[in-house]
Amino acid sequence: MDSSQNQKKIRLIALAFACVLLLLVYGPLARWFETADRFLFDQFAGRIPTAVLSDAYIISIDKPRASTTELLQAYGEIIEVLKRGGVSRIVLANPPEVAESESLPAWVRNLSSEDTRVYVPLRHRFEPYASRAGFVEFKSDEDGVLRRTEFWQLTEGVRKPALPLAIAFHRDDAPSNARMSSLDDAVYLSRYAELPRLPPEEVLGLSFNSRQLYGSTVFLDHEPALVDALGQLPSGQYVTTSEATAALLAEIEQNKTLLAPSWVVSIQWLAPVLLSIVAVLFIPDRGRGDIVLLTLGTIVVLLILEAIAVYLVRVRLDLGRPIVIFAGVSLLCFWLIGNPRRATADAFRKGSDFLAAGRLEPAFAEFRRCPPSETLAAVMYKLSLAFEQQAKPERAEAVLQWMKKTHGSISTERKKGAASEGMPDRLGRYLIERRIGRGAMGAVYLAKDPRINRPVAVKAIPIEEEFEDEELKEARLRFYREAESAGRLTHPNIITVFDAGEDKGQAYIAMEYVPGIPLKDFTDPVKLLAPKRALELAALTAEGLDYAHNQGVIHRDIKPANLLYDPKQGALKISDFGVARMTDNNRTKTGIVLGTPMYMSPEQLGAENLTGLSDLFSLGVTLYELLTGEVPFKASNIAVLMTKITTEEAAPIAHRRAGIPANVDTVLAKAMAKRPEDRFSCGAEMAIALRNCARVS
To answer: Does the annotation count 546 as an active-site position?
Structure first.
């Protein structure tokens, strides 16, 4: 399945999940998911600037075992003192209940006056004698927090105001605000600016100057703070009925009421639907990193919108559940997409295995799952050649068309004067551009495959000049065997071989062109790589060698000059598998092959049978040089050098340079062990050890 089909699949799954989540969050499981809305509201409302009710006090009669008669007597005495002091408003938010069968005390008949207005709850026995009455209804949510109340109630076809609203409207300078006129709007509590409390004993004392309360508002109740708390506000404060009434009255009089108008409900229903559409449309075709950024960005924007609504517009806008839905869809897409690097690596590995086994169609399917890259383009080019060899030109053309669509075309211009430099104009179908290096077996040219206008590296060997007669026949056979062995390798850390042939007396190998710097350039003591980077590049080399060894191919000439490094991409490629030979379990092969003596293993110098462990020894020598700027074994002649490589141990390097971890000497000693069986068992094991070193460097 290619990436576009995979995105469609993920998008369909995300759409189905979003629909189910919408039904659950706003359906049967709504009460559970309301917690998200409440949590966000509490965080914002609990920190909202407090509306302060100026020149107001609370007097609480603390007589828990007092009878109704005793409470009414205390109420009457305190109200008399307050009226003498010229109190402007007395609020009885929760006065004692008086049964219909009981007679009211005499003071109730003179409860209110022009100078001192008294406010009581609706349907209380005091209502006929009070200045105004309003309903008092504060109900806690399931979690015990007081959040929602109302300004109006419809009673017997008549709209009745809440007690705080009735008090505010009875002022001569009553606020005129259309926000408080709707019967459908809900009102929300936030914070309470604590009012000073006056002990009733002090108010009734002979030394109390009641005139200090002149023009003030006094809340009179028999509910001591905390002890008789009605509930908890979003701010975390526990309030009594009088305190909740005072908080709401302050917000009304200062026009800071927090409302939930009817139009907000429409937005709250529309928001999750729109967010679900956004999540389904824009998330499945993105990588994991982009999903995280998009999700966090959207959540931050939604939180800012809710904060603006609460703090500036004074509107409760619940976006908790929409955030949960959006985050849920994002999390699902994040999981479905999986680790892109791991998925790409798995697809590339499977495609390489299919290609090596000659199963070209499955290989094509797996490679299409990988994102565009130079390595992928090289392998797909190799795949098109394999289709041609199987007499399937239409499939080869399909591969080339896919490459053009995903990778585009890369053109280069042939430099003038190439003929004067002794370069051929063409080798096979490849147009030679310029020489880019010399290998152990000949020159390497940058060329262009005119069929797809793609650059390739062509390694040319003047085979007819070097060999004659029977030697030429054997050399030609060996050349094609080496090209075949290299052509079997398909790995991100190995340069891919496409084609091999002969033209104009030269044998050539066409391979992937990789712009890079040979690690030989970083062995100069003044140009050394950082130890952590050198260890990581060695680990990549070990992984590439592990793959080659599993395919039965030994490189035999691992050294810094044969490792190409692209600093921009952080990529590494092993080059020059031209001296490799296919290992053959049915026949013994001996003899020193082409290579550089200072990087050779003891068994390679001794003309013994070689295994992939010889390459690991050479890699150890290479890493030693990358870390220190010099090889571990040096001598003035080959004989002394061979003796040192086979008998002496390399000098430790952990303290020779800052940044080299202490355990690197252990890894190098194991890699450069004299006996193959004492080294790492495979390249993969060595790569793990190298990365463990890099973590502590």
So the answer is: no
CB atoms within 10 A of CB 312: 8
268: left (phi over 0), alpha (psi -120 to 50) or beta: alpha
Number of CB atoms found within 10 A of residue 376's CB: 22
Tell me the per-residue pLDDT of 394-441, one tens digit each, with 9 for 90 and over.
888 788 778 777 766 433 333 344 444 557 878 888 888 888 877 556
Q: Quote the pTM value.
A: 0.52
- State yes or no: pLDDT of 601 exceeds 50: yes
Token readout for 467 is 């060999």
What are phi and psi for residue 259, nearest 5 degrees?
-115, 165
Per DSSP, helices labelled H in 283-359 are 288-311, 320-337, 340-356
Token pair 């350039």 in the structure block, residue: 521
Which residues fall within 8 angstroms of residue 620, CB to CB, at 6 or more apart?
A: 667, 668, 671, 672
Measured CA to CA, the distance from residue 394 to residue 384 in angstroms comes to 10
Using DSSP bridges, classify how beta strands 217-221 and 56-60 pair: parallel, antiparallel or unpaired.
parallel
DSSP 3-state assignment of 95? coil
Q: How many CB atoms lie within 10 A of CB 201?
A: 10
As a whole number of angstroms, the distance between CA 347 and CA 366 comes to: 5
Among candidate residues 449, 557, 576, 615, the one labeled active-site is 557
Q: What is d(CA 488, CA 367) in angstroms, rounded to the nearest whole number? A: 16
Flag whether pLDDT at 667 surpasses 70: yes
SS3 508: strand
Domains and CATH numbers, the chain: 3-37+266-336 (no CATH), 56-255 (no CATH), 340-401 (no CATH), 409-513 (3.30.200.20), 516-697 (1.10.510.10)
How far is residue 91's CA from residue 99's CA, in Å, rounded to a whole number? 21
Residue 274's alpha-carbon distances to 267, 414, 595, 623, in angstroms, are: 10, 55, 66, 56
- DSSP one-letter code for 120: E
Distance between CA atoms of residues 136 and 121, nearest Å: 6
Q: Of 506, 509, 599, whose CA–CA distance to 555 is shortest?
A: 599
Q: What's the CA angle centered on 121, arms 115 and 123, to 5 degrees?
A: 120
Which pLDDT tens digit goes with each residue over 374-390?
Answer: 778 778 878 887 887 77
Residue 226: how many CB atoms within 10 A of its CB?
A: 10
CB-based contact 233:73 (threshold 8 Å): no
Q: Determine which helix (DSSP H) or strand (DSSP E) holds 260, and give its type and residue range.
A: strand 258-260
Residue type, 211: R
> In the beta sheet, which residues pair with residue 437?
444
Q: In this predicted structure, what is the pLDDT of residue 626?
A: 93
pLDDT at 428: 85
Please list the residues that pair with 439 across neighbouring strands.
442
Beta strands (DSSP E) in 106-215 are 117-121, 132-134, 148-150, 152-155, 158-161, 186-188
Query: In a 3-state reduction of DSSP, which class is residue 411?
Result: coil
Three-state secondary structure readout of 261-289: CHHHHHHHHHHHHHHHHHHHHHCCCCCHH
Distance CA 362, CA 344 (A): 15
Residue count of the chain, please give it: 697
Q: How far apart are the first and last CA of the chain?
A: 41
DSSP E strands: which ranges in 9-122?
56-60, 89-91, 117-121
Rounded Cα distance between 534 and 619, Å, is: 12
* Closest to 582 in 3D by CA, of 512, 490, 483, 496: 483
Handedness of CA 374, 380, 383, 388 (dihedral sign): negative
Closest CA to 514 of 368, 340, 377, 693: 377
- pLDDT score of 392: 81
